Amino acid sequence: MAYLRCDVAILGAGVNGTSIAYELSKRGKKVLLIDKIVMGAGASGSCDDMILLQSKKPGILLEMAFKSLERFESLKDELPSDIEFETRGGTILIEDEEHLAIMEDFVASQNRYGLEVEIIDRKRLLQLQPLVADDIIASTYSARDSQVNPMLLMKAFLLGARRKGMEFLSRTRAAAVERLQSGWGLLLDSGDRVEAEVLVNAAGAWANDITKLIGFEVPITPRKGQVIVTEAIPPLGATNVWSAQYIVSKLKPQEPAISRPDGRAAVQTPAERFGLGFAFTGTHNGNYLIGSTRENRGFDKSTDPEAIGLLSAQVERFFPVMSKINFIRTFAGLRPSTPDGMPFLGEIPGAPGFFIAAGHEGDGIALSPITGLVMADLITGKKPEFPMKAFDPGRFCGKGGV
Ligand SMILES: Cc1cc2nc3c(=O)[nH]c(=O)nc-3n(C[C@H](O)[C@H](O)[C@H](O)COP(=O)(O)OP(=O)(O)OC[C@H]3O[C@@H](n4cnc5c(N)ncnc54)[C@H](O)[C@@H]3O)c2cc1C
Q1: Which CATH class is domain 90-143+221-253+265-337?
Q2: Average pLDDT in the 81-94 region?
Q3: Deepest in the core among 19, 87, 126, 185, taking most CB within 10 A?
């Protein structure tokens, strides 16, 4: 049995855990990063690659996304390995007048907040996306939307942190957590023990398993997204692409089917059942990612032929040329979802030195740099540049802490 001591032990090696590990290691903290499987085993290894500003409602998350994008621009040179960061811009395709009206309002609210995004007509859209379907009436365009390779990002954070002395244990799970006179103790399933001044729970959709070890509950649940990967092809257009339907489905919370007068649930369409949206991005290698669904199916990570069929039909509807392109695989990932769409970032009430950074749902890649910075600030006693109230880990409890 080994006995390990560190300043900060972080549970979960996704984009957020690795980003926090990197920022704390840079500040001279002795960090131990622990994952129950391997780096990227959670959502960060089964997701799209977008740093999408346009999808965000005006507010603190959009502000943080601005800052995160700035931080990506410096990280691409600062990190020890390439992260395939690129700013191609993004277009959200608009199919009909109803979506045009919603998107005009949404864009106007974003403009007032300082985001450079506009509605462009079909003629301008064709300059960016010459192969788009004939009946797409307009689109949004923001030159700032960017992308990054999440696996390379985690690898670069990990490498950068290791160079500053961080240690990483994979295939290791915390079996028990105990409060010590100063700091926290972890009993690992390997039998080893860890003593840390500070613990950080960065376990994504599984974060509640860890807080439960100290008798605290956070309402984080998995929201599945299924994605198709195509063979590598030459670029179809200049920008990455979404549909207004995708944004509209994110703006409207998922509601249960409306009851019929006879008391039975109304039948949902297959697209509604799978929470179907459209996100279409080209990777550096030329493979396209076609996503995705938003489903509440517990921790089931299987892909479903019906959902994949819907995604496939949808990409052909927006880009008919895609009927000629081969798919090489499909995957599903579990977004860590919270009831109000905000992550939990901060110290757990009643548990000094026990922090959580989880619940980023569909924005965790985009927000990982800023998550690393604000968590490192909180842990080292520096005031973060953002008000953190909206992210309070105790905001749903009222049940007391530990
Ligand atoms: C289909 C899909 C598409 C997406 N597209 C985008 C996008 O384009 N842009 C964007 O910004 N975001 C996107 N997201 C969201 C993004 O992937 C997540 O928000 C982000 O990856 C969450 O990262 P995380 O580090 O918080 O959690 P995760 O990546 O889930 O990492 C959690 C880690 O904790 C580990 N773990 C769990 N329990 C324990 C334990 N008890 N002890 C130790 N370790 C543990 C897991 O093994 C895992 O490695 C997408 C998600 C999906 C599913």
Answers
A1: alpha beta
A2: 97
A3: 19
| 11 CB neighbour count, 10 Å cutoff | 27
Render pLDDT for 221-249 as a digit per residue (tens, 0 to 9).
999 999 999 999 999 999 999 998 767 76
**348-365 pLDDT, tens digit each:** 999 999 999 999 999 999
Structure tokens at 233: 């092809």
Q: By three-state DSSP, how is residue 325 classified?
A: coil
CATH 3.50.50.60 domain residues, the chain: 3-49+151-219+340-391
With a cut of 90, say whether residue 256 has pLDDT above it.
Answer: no
Pick the CATH number of 3-49+151-219+340-391 from 3.40.50.2300, 3.40.50.300, 3.50.50.60, 3.40.50.720: 3.50.50.60
**How far, in Å, is the centroid of ligand 1 from the Cα of 128?**
31
What is the distance between the alpha carbons of residues 393 and 380, in angstroms, rounded to a whole number? 18
43 lines ligand 1 (CB under 6 A): yes
Q: Where in the chain is the domain with CATH 3.30.9.10?
A: 90-143+221-253+265-337
Protein residue with its CA nearest to atom 22 in ligand 1: 364
Residue 174 beta carbon below 6 angstroms from any ligand 1 atom = yes
**Edge-to-edge order in the sheet of strand 327-337:** 118-121, 138-142, 90-94, 240-243, 279-282, 287-291, 221-232, 327-337
Ligand 1 centroid to Cα of residue 333, in Å, is: 8
Query: Model pTM?
Result: 0.95
SS3 204: helix
Q: Are 296 and 223 in contact (CB under 8 A)?
A: yes
CA distance 257 to 194: 48
Contact of 140 with 163, CB cutoff 8 Å: no
225 within ligand 1 shell (Cβ under 6 A): yes
